């Protein structure tokens, strides 16, 4: 038992008081974990676009004041009632979506969309009592996607915590708790390219480059990167992307450009842009007879996907995936092992590191579109 178990912990957290305003490092009180909850000491966290979207709160409703953050790594400090699967000292990755282990989704081998712990961006409280575990002078500070990792300590449902190899360096594997696993799993678990096949990746941000990394691991021989920003191409070479297409350089639809390059279409495509036109292109650029396209990007709320039904009749398959189809608790430890065995390269995604006190710098860089992942050292 740690000396802090059962006590309120006072620690530093970066609080988002208002949309779009710099986060403020505050002293917060973190209550002990309740039933089926664990309290984590966060050691490293990184910034993902989803944090920025909910901080800006332009297109999404967001709750304030709030502690953002969901890509992270840490150590279990204490556990609440009924927690038997984790103990203080365990090395873990908190995840924005969970695995209760009991619902129909968790029991299905095909789904990772747990009905109890699936991502909920509107909820700012814990499930057990509908209250927050964070407060400042008695005033509640709300949670974000059940993780709130921009805090030295946080309280998380046990189903949203993956226990990992204690030898894994937490300053590296923290990036596996969201975007990188999403892109990697989209390719390895859903698109499933075979050795020697061709794969198109739409969008060369961190998620798309992780999808390319998956294609490289699967032994694809051609990996075609598609992005409107040619500035992304140089970096993408490190991720095994062999050819590049900027749709702006052509006066015909990019799906036709890709069909011409590949004698009728690619074997697989993975869309990681969130743009609905790119989604349609990603589907229409796969080869008839066997091609499979996988959508990963989160579209605008009013977007509508339009394609001619003949594209399906001609034996093209369209799929979508959430979190790369990984079940957080069951599957994430094996993604960490892929890194430990030096199959998966994680370092190349990490382009920057800042101390916790400079967390706002990470936001500024992401808004400027600089770098892939910025590690925040707590
Ligand atoms: P990012 O903004 O870093 O990268 C997106 C890239 O797409 C950019 O380089 C941009 O230039 C490019 N792009 C935009 N429109 C394009 C178009 N029409 N054609 C070609 N390229 C285009 O984003 P990211 O962090 O890599 O995330 C990618 C997407 O994945 C986002 O939509 C994000 O919300 C989504 N995502 C989904 C899940 C999931 O579980 N399904 C999880 C995490 C992230
Ligand atoms: Zn994320
Ligand atoms: Zn479940």
UniProtKB/TrEMBL annotation:
Which transformation does this protein catalyse, written as a reaction?
a primary alcohol + NAD(+) = an aldehyde + NADH + H(+); a secondary alcohol + NAD(+) = a ketone + NADH + H(+)
Q: What is this protein called?
A: alcohol dehydrogenase
Instruction: Name the major location.
Output: cytoplasm
Family assignment?
A: Belongs to the zinc-containing alcohol dehydrogenase family.
Cleaved signal peptide residues: none
- Name the Gene Ontology biological process terms: formaldehyde catabolic process
Report domain Alcohol dehydrogenase-like C-terminal positions.
206-338
Ranges where the Alcohol dehydrogenase-like N-terminal domain occurs = 35-164
Q: What is its EC number?
A: 1.1.1.1
Per its Swiss-Prot or TrEMBL entry, what cofactor is needed? Answer: Zn(2+)
Identify the GO cellular component terms for this protein: cytosol
Q: Which organism is it from?
A: Sesamum angolense
């Amino acid at each position: 038992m740690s000396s802090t178990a059962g006590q309120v912990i006072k620690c530093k957290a970066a609080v988002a008081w208002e949309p779009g305003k710099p986060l403020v490092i505050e002293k917060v009180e973190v209550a002990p974990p309740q039933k089926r909850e664990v309290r984590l000491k966060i050691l490293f966290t990184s910034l993902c676009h989803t944090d920025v979207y909910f901080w800006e709160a332009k297109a999404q409703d967001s709750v304030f004041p709030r502690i953002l953050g969901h890509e992270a790594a840490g150590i279990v400090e204490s556990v609440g009632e009924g927690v038997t699967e984790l103990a203080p000292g365990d090395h873990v990755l908190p995840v924005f979506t969970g695995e209760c282990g009991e619902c129909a989704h968790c029991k299905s081998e095909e789904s990772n969309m747990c009905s109890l712990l699936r991502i909920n961006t509107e909820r700012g409280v814990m499930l057990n009592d509908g209250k927050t575990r964070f407060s400042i002078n008695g005033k509640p500070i709300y949670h974000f996607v059940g993780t709130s990792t921009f805090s030295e300590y946080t309280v998380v449902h046990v189903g949203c915590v993956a226990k990992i190899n204690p030898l894994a360096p937490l300053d590296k594997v923290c990036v596996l708790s969201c975007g990188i696993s999403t892109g990697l799993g989209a390719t390895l678990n859903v698109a499933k390219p075979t050795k020697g096949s061709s794969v198109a990746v739409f969008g060369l941000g961190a998620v798309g480059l992780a999808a390319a990394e998956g294609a490289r691991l699967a032994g694809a021989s051609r990996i075609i990167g598609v992005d409107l920003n040619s500035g992304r191409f140089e970096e993408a070479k490190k991720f095994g992307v062999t050819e590049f297409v900027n749709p702006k350089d052509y006066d015909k639809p990019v799906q036709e450009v890709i069909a011409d390059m590949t004698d009728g279409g690619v074997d697989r495509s993975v869309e990681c842009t969130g743009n609905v036109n790119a989604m349609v292109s990603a589907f229409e650029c796969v080869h008839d007879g066997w091609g499979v396209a996988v959508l990963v990007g989160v579209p605008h709320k009013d977007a509508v996907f339009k394609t001619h039904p003949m594209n399906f009749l001609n034996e093209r398959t369209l799929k979508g995936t959430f979190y790369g189809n990984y079940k957080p608790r069951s599957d994430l430890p094996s993604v960490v092992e892929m890194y430990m065995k030096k199959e998966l390269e994680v370092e190349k995604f990490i382009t920057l590191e800042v101390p916790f006190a400079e967390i706002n710098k990470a936001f500024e860089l992401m808004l400027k579109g600089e770098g892939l992942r910025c590690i925040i050292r707590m």
